[in-house]
Predict the structure of Multifunctional fusion protein.
Amino acid sequence: MAHVSDLISTDIEQYLKAHENKGLLRFITCGSVDDGKSTLIGRLLYESKMLFEDQLSAIEADSKKYGTQGDEIDFALLVDGLAAEREQGITIDVAYRFFSTDQRKYIVADTPGHEQYTRNMVTGASTADAAILMVDARKGILIQTRRHSYLMSLIGIRNIVVAINKMDLVDYSEAVFNRIREEYRAFARQIGFEDVTFIPMSAFKGDNITTLSERMPWYQGTALMPHLEAVELDDERLQRSAFRMPVQWVNRPNLDFRGFAGSIASGVIRPGDAIRVQPSGKTSTVARIVTHDGDLEQAVAGQSITLTLADEVDISRGDVISRIDAPAETADQFEASLVWMHEEALLPGRRYLMKIGTNTVTAQVSEIKYQVNVNTLEHLAAKQLELNAIGVCNLSLDRAIAFDAYADNQDTGGFILIDRLTNNTVGAGMLRFALRRSQNIHMQHVDVDKAARAQAKSQKACVLWFTGLSGSGKSTIANLVEKKLHARGQHTYLLDGDNVRHGLNRDLGFTDADRVENIRRVGEVAKLMVDAGLIVLSAFISPFCSERSMARDLVADGEFLEIFVDTPLSVAEERDPKGLYKKARRGELKNFTGIDSAYEVPEAAEIRIDTTVLDADAAAERIIGELIECGILQN
Ligand code: ADP
């Protein structure tokens, strides 16, 4: 077995210790198919002697079978491990590889370059200290190079190496290198890259990888490995930034000890430092820095610690502890960049869980300002973001959080969005800045409240939310229920889908994005009417679980009754009271629920009405009965 160190056989303890104390550099390689990424990584593993002999003989054999390099070793085969990739000749998923030198440990993320794998690239790059952009010297800067560069700038990678590869195939020409460098520099200025290193190389022949190549005496810089050995690690840089510790959990083993545990995102902290807890703004002083190995006099970015404070301060998971002299910002509305990572598009108005640091809040995209064409950097208008799309959006949260702009701190400014129903990660984003309007809008206190208004009407306010296919009977039944309530002297209002679309929602169509916005507005109106003390009936197809649960969450517990008007599609289509199914079947009506747009069946509706069993009047009676049962109506 070939390996970098004899210590492995002579003194394993010593070997492990030396490894433990080495800095770790994470980097990502990007480029298009055939630029030589896999060859470069294979070469780095080989040069750092991290290949085992049995692996070496396996690639030698494979090189003969699949390789593209004649009789020489094809390092790409080592790296393109998946059989599927080999056969198609492309790299599909993010592959992480580890190697080490005497100075450092390395983790390299090898990501596929195609546009449909943008999300993989973002995932692979999210923790990288450096990026190597591979450029084929024969082809120069391609659209892919620009796209990858834009992504790296979006993710905020500070150290960029443009590896101008395959120099052996252009006779190691200085003129070719200079031309590509100048072209890239002009582009780099557009996306705000300041510090770019250009290295001419041949990963295949090993030129300028570990040592400077004699074949390019005109190159005055460093070879790739020595460059990587010297790149500043993010951990080192972060120690110079303002102190931030997102609180992971409150450690309270007994009444005498109360500590706040977390991993330091940036900066330095010492006992005696004055701190501010955010978003609450409360202040105190650090009493102790507790760790498994005893108390510390100082702790820095990357360390996991428990802080105790001089005062009793109310702190919970998700809060951020800052030093008092340089606190984070707090806000509940932001402009953010967003990379969409799911097959189901981002819909403005839909509520997602947002994880930022150790905090989880509910977030809505209130507006997509524009989508970025990642190939040309043009801004495009967009109503939704599809898989792999990148956009700039306004975000609105259900409560204020402590944060930093992503450009200043990736831990307190970077976030992911999670689907509330499936728990899938659907997007990744970077906070740009707080919207000023969020700082200027406060809830106004009013003395006459919901309870007072409802009491004046001698009733309990609530929302009766009818959902079901078109023609299922929502409007018919809701209308009968309202008549019966009215006859009982109740104060009601019926919000009907078609009626609302004539006024408030006149600007909306029937795409998924517009349906979400339709229900968001109706939910807000229903909430205002409940506030006014009314019994609100709403009759909307409301096809998605997500928006129905949003409408539910807008009012208090017990104030929302979901009524699923359960009529099979065949029956609703047979009734077809407005002739809409016939139109849809003729293809004259797009996005019609049940035909070419989904209806998600409610799983926990309070009331389910089977209209094949109950006629409309009986259904209305049944609902009145349920309202008496749950105490909304008196008997
Ligand atoms: P939606 O509001 O759900 O689109 P509508 O109430 O406008 O549906 O239309 C439902 C149609 O079905 C009406 O023409 C109604 O008379 C008819 N219908 C037949 N049986 C029932 C029933 N059991 N409940 C409600 N409506 C029924």
Summary: The chain has four domains: 7-232, 239-323, 329-440, 450-629.
